[in-house]
Amino acid sequence: MYKILMVDDDFEVLQINKKFFEEKECEVRICNKPAEAMDIVQKFKPDCILLDVMMPEIDGYTLCRKIRVKTDVPILFLSGKVSEDDKVEGFEAGGDDYIEKPYSLREVYMRIVANIRRNSHKNTGRNNSLVIDLGQFSLDKEKHKLFYEDEEIIISNKEYDLMLFLAENANKEITFEEIGVRLWGTYIESDRRNVMVNVSRLRKKIQDKTGVDNLIETVWSKGYKLIKHN
Question: Which member of 13, 34, 111, 218 has the lowest number of beta carbons within 10 Å of its beta carbon?
Answer without folding.
Answer: 218
